[in-house]
Design brief:
The structure holds two protein chains of two kinds.
Chain A lengths: L4 H37 L1
Chain B lengths: L3 H21 L1 H9 L3 H24 L8 H25 L6 H12 L15 H16 L1 H8 L5 H9 L10 H29 L4 H16 L17 H14 L3 H8 L5 H4 L1 H23 L6 H16 L9 H6 L3 H13 L12 H19 L9 E4 L1 E4 L2 H27 L4 H12 L15 H15 L3 H19 L1
Antiparallel strand pairs in B: 1-2
Helix pairs in contact in B: 1-3, 1-4, 1-7, 2-3, 2-6, 3-4, 4-5, 4-8, 4-22, 5-6, 5-21, 6-10, 7-9, 9-10, 9-11, 10-11, 11-15, 14-15, 14-17, 14-18, 15-17, 17-20, 18-19, 19-20, 19-21
Classes of the chains: A mainly alpha, B mainly alpha.
């Protein structure tokens, strides 16, 4: 099935956001690790 | 056995690559016009002329219409990166930005291979167009010189497939090579546009004037998406002292570390692939485990006492190393003198593990690490389970794939190759009196095409180390096998000369 221009654009935008979610999740996890370690060390 | 017609074929295709490099220089030449750097513009025109003349002579001298075989493709890919570096160094050297032509070749190799180590004595005072050329080399190098040549100047046909595979890429997004290379370039340009817009606003937020915010945004995005690591400022990302800029660069270079086939699947609506893919799972696991090691040790030694600094300095260097980018928020000398050995070694391991296969990144690659861990799991299960049991390991990479012995052997071969290169680089560096941990760090940075430095890489370092790192960057980018094929071709050529 051929996609319309709007559907392609929607897929692109959603795809970019999905990919961006990976580094954001990793950063949040790393931030939590830093916070927990710093909290435990005090 | 290599025949005369083989050499002609290799020479003919290298002539095409030479033309491709010359065409690429038109972009920084235009930048020189924009910034009114007329002397540099002439340097680019001279370099383009050399490329065009050399390409014309080579293509006429070695004209061939034979179909490329895999040995030719391997040799062309291996030679193309050396040739590209020698030609790419011309404007750097002619502009007087480098101390010697060798330093220019080092920076050009570092650019094409998306490494990021640099021998520029004064980055802050480089002409804008020269600095743009360094970043542009990384952007094109991330996609692949040969990929670029395929998309623009190389003929279609089966030979194109072999060239693509020889350049250290294992996956075809489309059966047609021209379509695959155009898709890779389209994805790169898409992220260049999105990244530049976001970086531009981040630069404006950090207080940059409009013109320079735009210039820096494009340069940083090219270097970030290609996991390159060159920066228009000697202090790299530290220059901005901006958390926003740091977060934005992390997002772009982590996305840049993803497999192009994964990009294509996700951008076409298959978003679940991100959560199932073995590469993303392996990459995320190693990131979390090594983040704990790095940050806990930095905290234990009181290097960074609060969690925000720990994140901005500790995690940033680590994730920059793991994605083989090379941006830093500390000075190189701090890595050597301030950081304890364990976190420095953890970043070394991260640089060797590297990004995803068929991405802009370097290192062993998450796919091979994942396959190797599946292999270990299968072998352990074989011992534990009854002898009659049939053990099948599967992994998900675009499709569910059973673990095959030839894949596992290929992955192990590359891992062993990387370890040999890493050990070779470390020993050469240590020979000149540098300590073991710093030598390992710098060698891993070169072979993994990362660009983080412990302070060893500078224009004052011994020539032998410069040549060694050029070799490591080249061999690391080509994933070793092409290098051995090239050595075989050279050996064969020497034998021919000997028996003549």
């Amino acid at each position: 099935m051929k996609k319309t221009f709007l559907e392609i654009e929607k897929d692109l935008l959603r795809g970019v956001l999905t990919e961006a979610a990976v580094p954001i999740v990793l950063m949040v996890m790393a931030f939590i690790i830093c916070f927990m370690l710093s909290w435990w060390s005090k | 056995m290599i025949t005369k017609s083989d050499f002609k074929l290799i020479g003919y295709h290298l002539g095409r690559v030479t033309l491709g490099v010359g065409l690429m220089m038109l972009v920084p030449a235009f930048t020189a016009v924009l910034f009114r750097e007329w002397a540099i513009f002439l340097d680019f025109i001279t370099s383009i002329s050399i490329c065009v003349i050399l390409s014309h002579v080579t293509r006429n001298l070695f004209y061939s219409e034979e179909e490329l075989k895999f040995k030719h493709a391997m040799s062309i890919a291996a030679f193309a990166w050396i040739l590209g570096s020698m030609l790419g160094a011309l404007p750097l050297w002619l502009s007087g930005s480098m101390n010697s032509y060798l330093d220019g070749v080092f920076d050009a190799m570092s650019g094409w291979t998306t490494c990021g180590l640099t021998l520029v004595p004064d980055i802050d005072h480089l002409p804008y167009s020269i600095n743009f050329w360094r970043h542009f080399m990384q952007f094109i190098g991330g996609a692949g010189i040969v990929v670029f040549a395929l998309a623009v100047v190389t003929r279609r046909g089966r030979g194109a497939v072999r060239l693509y595979l020889a350049e250290g890429r294992e996956e075809r997004i489309f059966p047609s090579m021209t379509t695959t290379s155009r898709i890779i370039l389209s994805i790169s340009v898409l992220y260049l546009i999105i990244g530049s817009i976001i970086q531009f606003f981040a630069g404006m937020y950090a207080g940059m004037p409009l013109k320079y915010a735009l210039y820096d945004a494009v340069c940083y995005t090219m270097a970030a998406f290609s996991t390159g690591g060159f920066a228009p400022h000697s202090q790299s990302v530290l220059f901005y002292h901006s958390t926003v800029y740091e977060i934005v660069t992390i997002i772009i270079f982590v996305i840049g570390a993803f497999n192009f086939a994964l990009h294509f699947a996700v951008l076409n609506g298959n978003r679940k692939e991100v959560y199932k893919n073995i590469e993303i799972i392996t990459f995320s696991t190693t990131v979390i485990v090594l983040t704990i090691v790095t940050t806990s040790w930095l905290l234990h030694y009181g290097i960074y006492s609060d969690y925000v600094t720990l994140f901005r300095k500790g995690f940033y260097q680590f994730i920059s190393g793991h994605t083989t980018t090379g941006f830093s928020t500390i000075y190189p000398i701090q890595m050597s003198k301030e950081w304890p050995n364990l976190p420095e070694f953890a970043v070394t391991i991260a640089m060797l593990l590297g990004a995803c296969a068929c991405s802009t990144g370097g290192g062993v690659k998450a796919l091979r690490v994942g396959i190797t861990s599946k292999l270990f799991s299968r072998e352990v299960k074989k011992i534990i389970y009854p002898e009659t049991a049939v053990v099948v390991e599967k992994y998900h990479h675009l499709t569910n794939t059973p673990l095959r012995d030839d894949y596992a052997r290929g992955a192990l071969l590359v891992i062993v190759g990387y370890i040999i290169l890493f050990a070779f680089g470390t020993m050469i560096t240590m020979f000149f009196g540098y300590n073991a941990v710093d030598s390992m760090f710098e060698s891993a940075s070169a072979v993994g095409n990362t660009g983080l430095s412990s302070g060893i890489t500078s224009y004052t370092m011994p020539v032998v180390i410069k040549v060694t790192y050029i070799f490591l960057m080249w061999a690391g980018r080509l994933e070793i096998l092409s290098v051995f094929v090239l050595l075989g071709v050279v050996y064969s050529a020497m034998r021919r000369v000997h028996y003549m």
